[in-house]
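Work Package 4 report. The design task specified in the project plan requires that, given a folded chain encoded as structure tokens, an amino acid be chosen for each position. We show below one input record used in the internal validation round.
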């Protein structure tokens, strides 16, 4: 599969890095601090937060730390920093990135991550060294779920759709890429090591990116 593409686009969270970190922050740590700040029970705080999450899921604001810090009255970046020991590569992902150096392919990180979170994760993992280019949706003002993102990325990179392989764990993002015309799509079905692998996939799926070396 890799030998047939000129450009490889990789998502970050849930594709290269373990989504367990992000899920812990947003499902456990933020609700705990929000509950304490507002004098709520953890269940009430979690229900309120999940409603706020759901209302803008897939929009650029959902991925924006500044938005959530202002909305919740919390220093969300500092919460991320406080548990940065939980940031890690998914199994086999770092070796996979090393192996890509043997392939004649342009490797791009294409993420919805806020720039501050991206910087923190690079600080911990050094992942930036493996990529020829790094793009966050915040550069363009649209999340990967939106067609505007793909048009902006195309204008910036000039990639060929027919020879680009895109790997992500988010089915909504993959559908957006599909709509844009990327036909080589792969879904990661075990993005969070603290949870079971997904049983159903909408696209060609692998457990982790390392599987692409043998496909």
């Amino acid at each position: 599969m890799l030998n047939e593409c000129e450009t490889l686009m990789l998502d970050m969270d849930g594709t290269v890095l373990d989504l367990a970190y992000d899920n812990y922050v947003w499902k456990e740590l933020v609700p705990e601090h929000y509950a304490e700040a507002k004098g709520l029970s953890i269940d009430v705080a979690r229900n309120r937060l999940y409603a706020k999450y759901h209302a803008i899921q897939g929009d650029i604001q959902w991925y924006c730390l500044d938005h959530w810090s202002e909305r919740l009255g919390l220093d969300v970046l500092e919460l991320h920093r406080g548990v940065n020991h939980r940031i890690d590569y998914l199994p086999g992902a770092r070796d996979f990135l090393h192996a890509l150096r043997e392939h004649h392919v342009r490797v791009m990180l294409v993420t919805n991550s806020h720039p501050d979170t991206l910087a923190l994760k690079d600080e911990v993992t050094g992942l930036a060294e493996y990529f020829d280019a790094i793009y966050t949706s915040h550069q363009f003002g649209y999340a990967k779920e939106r067609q505007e993102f793909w048009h902006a990325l195309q204008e910036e990179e000039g990639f060929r759709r027919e020879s680009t392989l895109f790997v992500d764990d988010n089915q909504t993002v993959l559908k957006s890429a599909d709509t844009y015309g990327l036909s080589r799509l792969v879904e990661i079905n075990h993005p969070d090591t603290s949870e079971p692998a997904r049983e159903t996939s909408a696209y060609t799926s692998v457990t982790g990116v390392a599987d692409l070396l043998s496909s």
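The chain has two domains: 2-18+89-214, 21-85. Validation will be extended to a larger panel in the next phase.
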